[in-house]
Specification:
- This protein has 192 residues and is of the alpha/beta class.
- Helix content is 43%, strand content 16%.
- Strands 1, 2, 3, 4, 5 and 6 form a six-stranded mixed beta sheet that branches.
- α1 packs across α6.
- The radius of gyration is 16 Å and the shape is globular.
């Protein structure tokens, strides 16, 4: 994996990991970042899971070994895709609902400087619930609403893992949240 850097055209490459509960704004912020970078790829774990056409394990139903296995497989696929795209000097934005303490995060170890930032978007519960309510994703989105308080609590647990930045984007626009993520990347690149 090449180090994070700007190429000869000033394009940033590496991986930005966006985590957070449903309704945190991960996908919206990813799209805002895409508009700012000419070579960017979205490794959306939910979208990769949705590629399962037979035997899909619904994450809003009681979790099973199959649910865990499908999440792990989608995360491994996201990592493989990220490796390929970063090697070709793309900015890769990973979008996942994974809690930083989840053992699946080991999938992302060994990246060194290619990991530009690990960011948890953590709006207040009522904000995440409202954002989730306005989505157009059908029954799964409706069932997620009741799970958001518990999921958000897991993300907010102390102590916070090293190497992760937390952004309370409750009162921020999508563009302001993207600015905050880019500020985190800049601080990491400067070694701060």
């Amino acid at each position: 994996m090449k180090n994070m850097a700007e190429d000869e055209f000033g394009r940033l490459s590496g991986i930005v990991f966006l985590a957070g509960p449903p309704g945190a704004g991960k996908s919206s912020v990813a799209h805002a970042l895409f508009r700012r970078h000419p070579r960017a790829m979205h490794a959306d774990v939910d979208a990769l899971r949705a590629l399962v056409r037979s035997g899909f394990a619904d994450p809003t139903l009681p979790w099973s070994a199959e649910t865990r296995a499908q999440f792990r497989l989608a995360r491994r696929a996201a990592r493989a895709m990220a490796d390929l795209y970063v090697a070709e000097r793309y900015l890769v934005i990973v979008d996942d609902m994974v809690v930083p303490r989840n053992p699946d995060m080991r999938i992302w170890s060994g990246l060194g400087d290619a990991m530009l930032a690990r960011v948890v978007l953590l709006p207040r519960t009522r904000v995440a619930v409202e954002r989730n309510r306005t989505r157009k994703r059908g029954k799964v989105t409706q069932r997620l609403a009741s799970l958001i308080p518990r999921i958000r609590k897991e993300f907010a647990e102390e102590p916070r893992p090293r190497g992760w930045s937390y952004v309370d984007n409750s009162a921020l626009t999508v563009e302001e949240t993207a600015d905050a993520v880019e500020a985190i990347i800049l601080r990491r690149r400067r070694g701060a």
